[in-house]
């Protein structure tokens, strides 16, 4: 039985989630920290800090300490994790003392990047820190039978990375990890609007556009959204209307890169497992799985059934927490 002192953490580029098998999701907050740049004190973490992005006075900076699925600013990540542990303690009504933590890392992370994640978690008070590859955690969290000798194909489109993996018998058979995912789609939208309309928009506006009227490359009925930004010629605020067709144009190149990663992984699949893929299909997870039309588009392109995981934004966190049971079994067997 897992105690609340054993937790799984999805330390994501966009969101940080903490899961305990007994209590479920204990925390789900954006991976954002707001600091006072004069004193370096952390002022806010999570939603409160995210609401400050692009709106803060000079000395308060709201930053995302992770980029492309790995730590970009070590000290800030460590501070964010300390705050997260405090929030979790408050939630469970007692101090989380020296917890055992399983945390995911992108499968493309280097050993230095993995070590940094492990050290940052340890510095937040954890006793034992176990790492799990993100696609494996996502597959466990999506209820796939990962320890059976059948092909489970997982496509996890997060904020910083897209991980595509074929998992069989508890291990990764073939995998591609690319640093193109939700954040890149937001950046594509910012650049498109800048070039086409000479209008500067912020990250949060771009993300809202993607979520509200963003479509994968499928035929659909046109939708429109009104957005505001700063005119680069006059320097004044301006409102424009953007359509979902323009959003497709903006995101096209990155979406094609994601498709390419899926194709490349399937091409690497050992022939014995190919039959499973045709029968069982591909599971989409991560926030990108919620992009309108993505299931239909990928299905059309790879001609294999595509399903969306039950809770795409939570699969990795649930998988990290559940994997503790497996780790405990291994540790017990080794005694
Ligand atoms: N409805 C939606 N449509 C399109 N994209 C969405 C939707 N909801 C969330 N997203 C995007 O999903 C991304 C966050 O997904 P997720 O929480 O799985 O990433 P993460 O685990 O933090 O990142 P990574 O795994 O790369 O470290 C963000 O880019 C967000 O904009």
Automatic annotation (TrEMBL):
Positions contributing to ATP binding: 13-15, 159-161, 207-210, 287-290
Annotated InterPro entries: ATPase_NBD, MreB, MreB_MamK-like
Signal peptide (from-to): none
CDD domains assigned to the protein according to its UniProt record, in alphabetical order: ASKHA_NBD_MreB-like
Localization, UniProt: Cytoplasm
Assigned keywords, A-Z: ATP-binding, Cell shape, Cytoplasm, Nucleotide-binding
Top-level division of the source organism's lineage: Bacteria
Pfam families per record: MreB_Mbl
HAMAP family assigned: MreB
Family: Belongs to the FtsA/MreB family.
Subunit architecture: Forms polymers.
Cited function: Forms membrane-associated dynamic filaments that are essential for cell shape determination. Acts by regulating cell wall synthesis and cell elongation, and thus cell shape. A feedback loop between cell geometry and MreB localization may maintain elongated cell shape by targeting cell wall growth to regions of negative cell wall curvature.
Name of the protein in question: Cell shape-determining protein MreB
């Amino acid at each position: 039985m897992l105690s609340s002192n054993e937790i799984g953490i999805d330390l994501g580029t966009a969101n940080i989630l903490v899961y305990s098998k007994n209590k479920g999701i204990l925390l789900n907050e954006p991976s954002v920290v707001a600091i006072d740049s004069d004193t370096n004190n952390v002022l806010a973490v999570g939603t409160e800090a995210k609401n400050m992005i692009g709106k803060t006075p000079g000395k308060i900076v709201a930053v995302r300490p992770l980029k492309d699925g790995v730590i970009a600013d070590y000290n800030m990540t460590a501070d964010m994790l300390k705050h997260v542990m405090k929030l979790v303690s408050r939630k469970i009504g007692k101090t989380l003392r020296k917890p055992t933590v399983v945390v995911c890392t992108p499968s493309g992370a280097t050993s230095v990047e993995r070590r940094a994640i492990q050290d940052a978690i340890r510095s937040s008070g954890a006793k034992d820190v176990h790492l799990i590859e993100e696609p494996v955690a996502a597959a466990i969290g999506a209820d796939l039978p990962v320890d059976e000798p059948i092909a489970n194909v997982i496509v996890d489109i997060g904020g910083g990375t897209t991980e595509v993996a074929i998992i069989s018998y508890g291990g990764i058979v073939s995998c591609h990890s690319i640093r193109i995912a939700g954040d890149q789609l937001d950046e594509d939208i910012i650049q498109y609007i800048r070039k086409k309309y000479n209008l500067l928009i912020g990250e949060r506006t771009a993300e809202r556009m993607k979520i509200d009227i963003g479509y994968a490359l499928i035929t659909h009925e046109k939708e429109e959204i009104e957005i505001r930004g700063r005119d680069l010629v006059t320097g004044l605020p301006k409102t424009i209307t953007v359509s979902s067709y323009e959003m497709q144009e903006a995101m096209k190149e990155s979406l094609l890169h994601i498709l390419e990663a899926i194709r490349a992984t399937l091409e690497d699949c050992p022939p014995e497992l190919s039959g499973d893929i045709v029968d069982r299909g591909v599971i989409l997870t991560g926030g990108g799985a919620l992009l309108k039309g993505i299931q239909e588009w990928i299905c059309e392109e790879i001609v294999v059934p595509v399903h969306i995981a039950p809770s795409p934004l939570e699969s990795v966190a649930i998988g990290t927490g559940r994997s503790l049971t497996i780790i405990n079994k291994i540790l017990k067997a080794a005694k």
